[in-house]
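User: Sequence for Beta-eliminating lyase-related protein below. Tokens please.
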Amino acid sequence: MAEDVRARRIAAMRGCDRLLAGVRPATVRERLAELGEVAGPALMPDYYGDGLVAELEERVARLLGTPAAVYFPTGTMAQQVALRYGAELTGLRTVALHPLGHQEVHERRAYADLTGLRAVHPTTAPRHPTAAEIAALDEPVGTVVFELPLRDAGFVLPTWAELTEAAGAARAAGARVHFDGARLWESTPYLGRGLAEIAGLADSTYVSFYKTLGGLSGAAVAGTAAFAGYARAWRHRHGGQVFQQWPAVLSALAGIDRELPRVPEYVRHARTVAAALARVPGAIVHPQPPHTHQFRLWLPYPAERLNEAALVLAEEEKVWFAGGWRHAELPGHAMAEISVLAPALEWSADEVTETGLRLVDRIRP
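Assistant: Structure tokens for Beta-eliminating lyase-related protein:
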């Protein structure tokens, strides 16, 4: 049944003339055609991490202002290696994580089950830990992790001053600082700093290529040359030394060239979209205004009815509003994550509000 719903959703989105959230799903043939536009006629595949992989690693290192970067097929693998390095370097197998962090919620606690580390939580509040909370930890930790932005708290970020103070508190406690920057690309407008200056606060930084940039898959960790050497060794041990990865790497390079320069525009327009959605009766937007180009929207209806209404709206009117509605923290409400990307830029505030009202009208008795 879930596969049938997913297939219906993909078909509906592909048939839409306008999309407010996300992008139109592409077929395999369409993705291959995109890669063909990027690749020159003489471009050769990579072999065990050379060629295109090395080019992407050098590109990321320059963007983040670090001596080196290492490509990984998945972010889960990359983050395990970064935390293991912190444990071995400091001799401390305890890490400070947020309970809403990606390692806890979306990685099946791989850092604990596969790497043998143990977590402490500086705070359970739906925000980033403060310098005071890190300083108040009652045991030493090898690494303090900051997820920028913290997705499961609503894609929220600290201010630059808060992040600087918290990172300083972690170092003062003898810990390494690791940035889970899967979505670091869209954090620069709110923090008011470039990628290199942000990454400069951390000892290691992880970035994703399929989130925001639209790549097929893949990630990278960046830091010192010593860290990069360690990461390459453990990438191999984790099974990440893949023979050829050129499709994912090529799509990542294309994303850096094509999507990364547009991210500030997406973030600006997300604020317009969020304010317009807040005008729909019963709607709750968080954060308001959004910190990045993504935010959460709650509506006072059951998730099942919202998902069905969104599909029917797409099928009948060729307009995609938002999907993936689920029951969340607010009783009587369902929540969806809104991602404002290129297709949303053509929407005015009034059009956003009016479409939200049409969606709600399909649910009301």
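The chain has a mean pLDDT of 96.
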